[in-house]
């Protein structure tokens, strides 16, 4: 199979997006620190962005729709990272740990 044909197909991009999404979901379940969960959440958002851009490239009649959705996802990812890091810093100041098992007595 020609490598150019493999790079220029929707299935290739969907598989890459699904792998990123799957690695992110696995990381959210497996990691016990908040930083690891934050990185896994970024992988989930990256997988969604890859899928939006793939559908935009191969199926959309208007090429700007997928790009606009991807820009919104990037903005949400930046806001989520800023808020999550500030919460992680606040938790670390109170508990001197960023493990999820150490902060189970939080109420709310």
Q: How many helices in DSSP terms?
A: 4
Biggest beta sheet summary: none
- Give the averaged pLDDT, no decimals: 85
Order of helices and strands: HHHH
Number of DSSP strands? 0
Helical coverage, percent range: over 70%
Named at the architecture level, the CATH assignment is Orthogonal Bundle
Can you identify the CATH class?
Answer: Mainly Alpha
Radius of gyration over all CA atoms, rounded: 18 Å
Strand proportion: under 5%
Characterise the protein shown here:
The chain has helices at residues 3-7, 10-30, 34-58, 64-95. The protein is an all-alpha fold and 108 residues long. It has a single domain, classed as Helix Hairpins (Orthogonal Bundle). Helix 2 (10-30) packs antiparallel against helix 3 (34-58) and helix 3 (34-58) packs antiparallel against helix 4 (64-95). The model has no long low-confidence stretch (mean pLDDT 85).
In short:
The protein is mainly α and 108 residues long. 77% of the residues lie in helices and 0% in strands.
Short descriptors:
single chain, 108 residues
Topology:
Elements: H1 3-7, H2 10-30, H3 34-58, H4 64-95
């Amino acid at each position: 199979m020609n490598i150019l044909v493999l790079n220029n197909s929707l299935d290739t991009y969907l598989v890459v997006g699904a792998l990123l999404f799957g690695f992110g979901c696995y990381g959210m379940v497996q990691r016990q620190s908040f930083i690891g969960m934050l990185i896994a959440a970024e992988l989930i958002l990256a997988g969604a962005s890859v899928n939006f851009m793939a559908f935009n490239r191969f199926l959309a009649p208007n090429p700007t729709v997928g790009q606009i959705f991807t820009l919104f996802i990037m903005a949400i990812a930046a806001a989520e990272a800023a808020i999550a890091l500030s919460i992680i810093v606040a938790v670390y100041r109170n508990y001197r740990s960023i493990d999820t098992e150490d902060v189970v007595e939080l109420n709310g």
